[in-house]
Amino acid sequence: MRRSTLPRVFSAEIAAFFDGFSCRVHKALLAYCVGLVMLARFRSVKRIAEEYLEGKVDSLHHFLKNSPCRGQKLRAALNGELCQGLCRSDKVPLLIIDDTPIEREGPAIEGVGVHYGGKGLVKGQCVVTAILRQGNLKLGLAVKGYRPKCSCPPEEFQSKVDLAVEVLEEAASMGAKFTVLLDAWYACQRVLNSVAERGWRYLAAIKSNRRIVLEGNKSYVRHLAKGPRSYQRVRLSRKRWVKVAKRIVLLPKVGLVALFIIKTRGETKYLISNDLQLTPAQAVKLYGGRWSIETWHRDLKQHLGFAELWVRSWQACQRHWTLCLVTHNTLVLWNASLPAKSRKRTFGSIVRSFRTTVQAPAPIAFRHGYLKAA
Predict the structure, then answer these.
(1) Which of 117, 215, 248, 296 is the most interior residue, by most CB within 10 Å?
(2) Secondary element (H or E) of residue 100
(3) Domains of the chain (ranges plus CATH)?
């Protein structure tokens, strides 16, 4: 059998911020992360254990479901070791918050409800997510499972807004400033004020029925799109242009905001920002960065099995999502550490490059902070 050593990315990057855990938990963490990336499909707990944990299926199940290792500790270690590098730059990184549904059915699966997604209403689970982006580099910051009231004890229920505020608190602990991008679901008083109180800038979509106050008169956002108005043409791509108008309005319980009315392809959309100096061109181009979190969801689901859950308990689901995030960040940083000519542009190509670079036969044993093929 060929012997090989996994690159330093799994022996140092991941192992470094897992050092606070016991040896048994440490081995399970590393084995699961390796299984997520090295197995192209059918990433079941049984197969990961057989390939990378010496066949200890029960141990891996116990780690996912019952281990005292908490997702909060994992995320704290992750934020401290992986994401702070983005905040040391002179440029203000983007903090993007959204959620994504995961289709699942079954009476024994915890946290199942009906959620809205790109395909309409979806039955399954839902995860509130956040990423940091600076230039072409984007790293996951948080994954927090959302459970409807009907599927969890009353004292444990947290709305999506509650989870978004928790994300902002975790980001604030990193000691950096952010520009926060939000869709209309999270453009509520509590989230917007939480961003503004920290001295950060936000740019958020809002619905057309949102109430505003303009020159002392109460109105709705959609009314501002009617009649003649001074629009500026903004180029988004080679063949796509939009028309944008800007007004300063008062958003009740939030304060003065810059409102951007965007007309494109027969549709009218609205953005608001607490940066009153933001120009229409800057606002439209900046908000275009929000799409990064949609492609991030796709990358996790296609290449790391984010939606392939072989567990039923809520804690095990949350741990699976957290380890998908850890694995994604580690691969992105591994790719960024390569010479410029060797770096891959898409996450799929990063995963494929990693798999071909590392020929790791099973099983893998843990030795002095390194994962080595047995």
Answers:
(1) 296
(2) strand 94-103
(3) 8-69+322-327+340-373 (no CATH), 72-294 (3.90.350.10)
Distances (CA, A) of 39 to 309, 318, 353: 14, 20, 13
**Other Cβ atoms within 10 Å of 165 Cβ, number:** 19
In three state form, how does the secondary structure of 178-239 look? CEEEECHHHCCHHHHHHHHHCCCEEEEECCCCCEEEECCEEEEHHHHHCCCCCCEEEECCCC
7 burial level (CB within 10 Å; 0-12, 13-18, 19+) = middle
Q: 251-306 pLDDT, tens per residue?
A: 999 999 999 999 988 899 999 999 999 999 999 999 999 999 999 999 999 999 99
Q: What separation in angstroms does the CA of 231 have from each of 130, 154, 221, 263, 335?
A: 33, 49, 16, 9, 43
CB-CB contact of 232 with 225 (8 Å): no
Q: Which two tokens stand for residue 332?
A: 């992105």
pTM of the model: 0.89
Q: What is the pLDDT of residue 298?
A: 96
Hunting for tokens 């679901």 — which residue is that? 185
Q: For residue 68, is the peptide bond before it cis, meaning its omega torsion is within 30 degrees of 0?
A: no
Q: What is the pLDDT of residues 130-181, one digit of tens each?
A: 999 988 889 999 999 999 988 888 888 999 999 999 999 989 988 889 999 9
| One-letter amino acid of 233 | R
Q: Are 11 and 280 in contact (CB under 8 A)?
A: no
Q: Which residues pair with 133 in a beta bridge?
A: 94, 138
Summarize the confidence of residues 225-237 as an average pLDDT.
85
